[in-house]
Write a structure and sequence with these properties.
Order of helices and strands: HHHEHHHEHHEEHEEEHEHHEEHHHHHH
Radius of gyration: 30 Å
Helix content: 55-70%
Number of helices: 18
Number of strands: 10
């Protein structure tokens, strides 16, 4: 594909999508550094050959033309070598991330501001020194000051940047930083989405019976296959208000659709609407993005945990579960938002397709639970985090938390546990039952768990565990 194709593709995107795509590319930031290097080189030429700044500086600072060419040729080779080492380190890091954690993390590392600035510094330094090398002559009587000083400083900056990049890469690859950065990225997406929808939310109850019937609406279908990446809600509300229409999303942001899939249902209240105006506010692409998709962040974190399970790395799994818990708490707060968007006249214009907290809880933890294959350590950590969520979240999600824990416990069918593993799981289950008000259900699960204890300790565990926990419940 040609260069002009990519340029045309970026111009077709919405402003938010274009900004996200440019951040995830590796060439955008170095491009600005190269432009800066060209400008700095022109300024250096101006200082040496127009102003002749060497007349105002001490003599030892300057170089003759021939000596300066030797210096610049060495600097060009040195900066290029550092750039090669940097690219090699980058490729090693990307390969490690892809194989050990998740291929989806490549975008996170490439879009990291520090990574892009490092690449920009090396490219800019090389272009700057190379341009300086081109216009220096071999004349012995030529006396130059600004070019050697600034070129040496540029090489020093490149050397220090190389050390910084090695430190940045090794720090970024640490487990806690990987999961934390992914969590922070998802939370920033959530915050931006909440800020975008806040002007259209009202403290106003909408009865489902007051909404128009489905058979009275008309359906807008997708013209192509792909993922629903972005929706410009402000523009949709404005257009629906102008045409006096009501829109309802039939798919969620991030959901895959095929050509002909119903995207929107609309009801005309006034004049006939123009469907093409609404399609301009919706972006469908070939990949999932985190621009407005909260679910995608959970999936990426869960994939890191699953990869770590395959590599027998419980520390990574545990740390990732902690970050998923923090993200779930934030998502649980945002799912309380009303799916109804109103215009300035407080008229209902857009109805979103939202999932409840139970759906996101399943997306975050269910795949880890499945691939853990009854690993008691991972299961205990999952129940611990669910118990922690029950202490910090509203009571309306307590039923969902308990139900997930109950299904997790019942998944131990035909599986034996060691005594201590069973006791640790029971301890977290007991705490969760108190927080969610399911003490009676807990007794059944307690008996069920005690039956899973291995035969070597079966004679001692039931009496001790049952006595302790029944006394707590009483």
């Amino acid at each position: 594909m040609s260069f002009f194709y990519y340029i045309k593709k970026y111009f077709k995107m919405s402003r938010r999508q274009r900004k996200s795509e440019l951040k995830s590319t590796i060439w955008f930031m170095p491009f600005w550094y190269i432009l800066g290097a060209v400008g700095l080189s022109a300024f250096t030429f101006y200082l040496d050959y127009i102003v002749d700044v060497s007349l105002y500086l001490p003599a030892p600072i300057g170089f003759s033309g021939q000596t300066l060419q030797v210096l610049l040729s060495a600097l060009v080779g040195g900066v290029l070598t550092l750039s090669a080492f940097t690219i090699n380190s980058l490729l090693v890091a990307l390969t490690t991330f892809s194989g050990q954690f998740s291929s989806k993390m490549l975008v996170n590392f490439v879009s990291d501001r520090a990574t892009q600035h490092v690449l920009g510094i090396f490219n800019g330094s090389f272009i700057y020194v190379l341009l300086n090398f081109l216009y220096v002559t071999h004349e012995e009587e030529e006396y130059i000051a600004a070019t050697p000083v600034l070129s040496i400083l540029t090489a020093i900056i490149a050397a220090v940047t190389f050390i910084y990049f090695i430190n940045h890469t090794t720090t970024w690859m640490q487990v806690h930083n990987i999961s934390y950065n992914m969590n922070a990225k998802s939370q920033s997406v959530q915050t931006a989405l909440e800020k975008e929808l806040a002007p259209f939310h009202l403290d106003k109850e909408i009865e489902p019976t007051s909404l128009p019937a489905d058979d009275e609406g008309k359906v807008l279908t997708s013209h192509q296959s792909g993922y629903l990446q972005v929706a410009d809600f402000a523009k949709l509300v404005k257009t629906a208000s102008r045409e006096d229409a009501l829109l309802r999303f039939d798919v969620r942001i991030g959901e895959f659709v095929v050509e002909g899939t119903p995207l929107l249902t609309y009801w005309e209240k006034g004049s006939k609407i123009h469907p093409e105006r609404y399609f301009k506010s919706i972006e469908i692409g070939v990949k999932q993005t985190e621009i407005q998709d909260l679910e995608y962040g959970l999936i990426k974190l869960a994939e890191v945990a699953i990869k770590a399970l395959g590599h027998n790395d419980p520390l990574t799994v545990t740390n990732t579960i902690h970050q998923i818990t923090d993200l779930l708490k934030r998502i649980g707060q945002s799912t309380n938002f009303s799916p109804y968007l109103f215009d300035q006249e407080q008229q209902l214009r857009v109805i979103l397709n939202q999932k409840d907290f139970r759906y996101y809880l399943h997306k975050g933890f269910a795949s880890i639970r499945e691939y853990a294959n009854q690993n008691s350590t991972i299961m205990t950590e999952l129940l611990t985090m669910i118990s922690l969520l029950s202490k910090t979240m509203d009571e309306d999600v307590h039923e969902d938390l308990w139900e997930f824990a109950r299904q997790t416990i019942l998944g131990f069918d035909n599986y034996s546990l060691y005594e201590n593993d069973c006791l640790y799981i029971i301890e977290q289950l007991s705490e969760l039952s108190k927080n969610t008000g399911h003490q009676e259900d807990y007794l059944f699960l307690l008996e069920y768990m005690l039956q899973r204890v291995s035969s070597k300790s079966a004679a001692t565990v039931p009496q001790k565990a049952t006595g302790e926990h029944e006394q707590e419940l009483s």
